[in-house]
Amino acid sequence: MLAILLKDLRIELRTKETLAALLLLGLLILVVLSFAFDPMSPLREAAAPGVLWVAVVFAGTLGMNRSLLRERDNDCLQGLLLAPVDRGAIFLAKALANFLFMAAAQVVLVPLFVFFFNLPLVTTVTRLAPVVLLGLLGFAAVGTMFAAVSLRTRAREVMLPLLMLPLAAPLIIAGIQASTALLAGAPLAAVAHWLNLLAAFDAVFLVVGWLAFEYVVEE
Amino acid sequence: MNESAHLEYLIAAYAVVWLGVLIYVTGLARRSSALEREVAELRELLAKRPR
Amino acid sequence: MPTTARAPAALELQQVSKRYGRVVALDDVSCAVAAGEAVLLLGANGAGKTTLLRCAATLLRPSRGTVRIGGLDAATHGAAARRRLAVLGHESFLYPDLSAVENLTFYARLYRLRDGAARVATLIDRLGLQGWAHRPVRALSRGLQQRCALARVLLHEPALLLLDEPFTGLDVTAREQLCTVLGEVHRRGAAIVMSTHELAIGLTLCRRAIMLVGGRLGWDGSVAPGDAAALEDRLRGGRAQAVA
Amino acid sequence: MRSPDLTDRILPPAVIAIMLAALYLVFVRVPTDAFQGPVQRIFYVHMAMWLSTFTAFAIVGVASLLYLVKRTPHWDHLGRAAAELGLLFCTLGLATGSIWAKPIWNTWWTWDPRLTLTLILWMIYAAYLLLRSLANEPQQGATLAAILGVSGVVDLYLINRAVYWWRSIHPAVIVDRQGGTGLADPLMRATLIVTMLAFFLVFLWLLRLRLRAARLQDAVDDLRAELA
Q1: Residue B2 backbone zone (phi > 0: left; psi -120 to 50: alpha; other: beta)
Q2: Considering only residues 3 to 62 of chain C, which have any Cβ-Cβ distance to chain D shorter than 8 Å?
Q3: Is A173 on the interface with D (CB under 8 A)?
Q4: Chain A residues within an 8 Å CB radius of D154
Q5: What strands, in cross-sheet order, belong to the sheet with C38-43?
Q6: Chain C nearest C-alpha distance from A10 (Å)
Q7: Segment 1-51 of chain B within 8 Å of chain D by CB
């Protein structure tokens, strides 16, 4: 399982495709959303966490499609399926790889977000870190599984957000609500219930992915 | 509370429900009867052309 | 074909059927390939050859019946069964952005081979890939990619080799080399199930042939190198009668 | 399944009888709500839609799981039929909910937890049906849809929690999950139960019709394959 993860990291370091896609898309969405708010209005401050999460969610969705494409040329997916490893492990490796790519993208995107909304850099990053990371894990889990599902349909790009985002509603709501509270200075304990929800979401979809991947890839 | 204005909403709500169910049922009925006819035709064709 | 008492059959299919909705790809096929035996898989296009190979490789779950690899039931011991087999098809299963060595090292780790690096090195030399070992697979010619794929197949010394039209798209020299390597592996005891249209080459390796007709087992018998012509017309005729 | 002809014979008249009783109760017998006036009667049909929607989605979840395990076409048909009907009742539930919200809160849409939950479920099951139609092969579509079906049900509780915490304000008159039906008058409660039962039977009846249509479709495909 680790071998698959390391392989994905090696390919990514060499081609940097997914990382570049995630970064640029995130930046693009941040900018476009900033147009939605008149720079002077107080509304801008209140909407900040929402903007960040929308950028994370949509950049992640579009980036997720790329992750399984790597297995398509030369039919490498069959190479993996032939390995003496059960199919759930392949899912976990791909999900972790996606999680790491998205986390890496956030290392650049969150400071940019802070820059656009002139928030205090250090406090924002330290406060948001737990929520964003928990959120990204769940997002990678549900995203990887449904990327594999949508690969097998005719309208791949459209299918992934349609399948994934409604299911990820609790993750998005919890992420935004927790981030808003944290940015407003609430202690971590005050958002514990949101974090528990995120953790539960991660656990549920990592397990569902592990079990269902066998059926997703079979002919 | 202006009583009369709300009656249309009440009627509208129940009308929507009945309309929805009705549209679905007619669609389903039409599809089923078309399928039944097709089954009959195909059976006939099969019978006429014994293997 | 009773399983020899000494070693379990390299591959055993018991009443295997595979349906895609209404289309029946395989219909109640039962056959066994003993350890170290080389079998030619024949049949017109769409007769079920690829489906049979994919079921044998545990890539496809049969709708009915069981597939056993080295005595292990593929449905319950999938992972362990896969350790014993390898597949060489049209596609190389190699990552274009990684070099030949990186690809092979990845597969060595995937198959958890302790002496992975050593095996990769010996295979690179044996297949004459030294010159191209560190260039991304994307840059290699079709013939070279096929040789890398062959290296990948031999990495974990499988007891069963499943080959789906391995010779298509190869030039003459590449074909000869593939044939000699397969001969070596076969002599060292690996069972081979090969589906190919190049009967001449196939017959140099295999002493037995199985023919699929419309997803059913049409014929299963021993063959000699000279039978290419006879097999050719049987394929066209599709009738099941004894060869010489 | 139960003997088909018996159910087919008793179900339609039973549905019509209970439906008439429900309509009679709702429009004639039940006392008008003191605060909201006659428009409060939308509540009964709205709740009936809610029950059928949730039963449908529960059936989709179970049918999807069984299809993944057993692979028999029956569970696939059931999953699809339940999803289609679930979507229908969900749409009607949302419509009645917003028609009712307009006179009471003067807005077509309120982010009331239950309505939001219904909206999210609506999107999941719309994706379920779209997935089936866009899959490369029908049989593959069934498996992929089954996976979404299971994920949807598993996700239900998480969505529920998220939505309720997000919109914790809760208008008293609408049924809150913990307490009773929030209806003082016993006749109101009786009307609610009868209406819910009536529409639930409509749901079951439609489900049977839809399953019959699915079996007919299979028969047609079989015959066509035989002829080919």
Answers
A1: beta
A2: 20-22
A3: yes
A4: 204, 208
A5: C85-88, C160-164, C191-195, C38-43, C208-213, C216-222
A6: 8
A7: 1, 3, 5-7, 9-10, 12-14, 16-17, 20-21, 24-25, 28-29, 31-32, 35-36, 38-39, 42-43, 45-46, 49
Per the CB < 8 A criterion, the answer to whether C211 and C239 are in contact is no
Residue C239 has pLDDT above 50, yes or no: no
3-state DSSP assignment of residue D145? helix
List CB contacts (< 8 A) between A84 and chain C: 79-80, 82-83, 110-112
| pLDDT tens for each residue of C46-73 | 888 888 998 998 888 888 899 998 888 8
Q: Are strands C38-43 and C208-213 parallel, antiparallel or unpaired?
A: parallel
- Find out whether C88 and C57 touch, Cβ atoms under 8 Å: no
Residues A182, A188, A192, A195, CA torsion sign: positive
Residue D173 forms contact with B (CB below 8 Å)? no
Q: How far apart are CA D143 and CA A216, in angstroms?
A: 8
Distance from CA of D121 to the nearest CA of B (A): 18
Restricting to D residues 205-224, those with a Cβ less than 8 Å away from any Cβ of B are 206, 209-210, 212-213, 216-217, 219-220, 223-224
Q: Chain D within 8 Å of A205 (Cβ-Cβ)?
A: yes
Please identify which residue in the block is written with the tokens 């409604």: A166
CB A149 within 8 Å of CB A209: no
Q: A residues 88-117 near C, CB within 8 Å?
A: none
Interface of D with B in 143-172 (CB under 8 A): none
R_g of chain B, CA atoms, integer Å: 22
Among A73-87, A195-209, C203-217, the range of highest mean pLDDT: A195-209
Domain ranges of chain D: 4-29+39-227
Reported as a single tens digit per residue, the pLDDT across A96-117 is: 999 999 999 899 888 888 888 8
Delimit the domains of chain B by residue range: 22-51
Q: Tell me the domain boundaries of chain C.
A: 11-84+158-237
**Dihedral of alpha carbons C106, C107, C109, C110, sign:** positive
C216 phi and psi angles, rounded to 5 deg: -110, 160
Site from A13, A19, A82 to mutate, C interface, most C CB atoms within 10 angstroms: A82
Tell whether D120 is within 8 A of chain A (Cβ): yes
**D139, D221, D222: residue with CB nearest C20:** D139
Nearest partner of C81 among C92, C66, C95, judged by Cα: C66
Q: Which residues of D216-228 are buried (b: 16+ CB within 10 A; e: fewer)?
A: bbebbeebeeeee
List the structure tokens of D101. Answer: 């919200």
H/E segment holding residue D8: helix D4-24
Count of residues in chain A? 219
Q: pTM for this structure?
A: 0.86
Q: Give the sheet arrangement for strand C64-69, strand by strand.
A: C23-33, C11-20, C64-69, C72-73
Alpha carbons B38 and B49: distance in angstroms, whole number: 17
Contact indicator for D133, D141 with CB cutoff of 8 Å: yes
Q: First and final CA of chain B: distance in angstroms? A: 76
For the domain C11-84+158-237, what is the CATH code?
3.40.50.300
CB D96 within 8 A of CB B11: no
**What DSSP designation does A218 have?**
-
Look up tokens 């003191």; give the residue. Answer: D34
Per the listing, tokens 């069959």 go with A78
What residues of chain D lie within 8 A of the CB of C22, using their CB?
Answer: 221-222, 225
Q: Which two tokens stand for residue A131?
A: 């929520």
ipTM above 0.95, yes or no: no
Q: How sure is the predictor about A132, in pLDDT bands with cuts at 50, 70 and 90?
A: very high
Which residue, C86, C90, C88, C92, is CA-closest to C137? Answer: C92
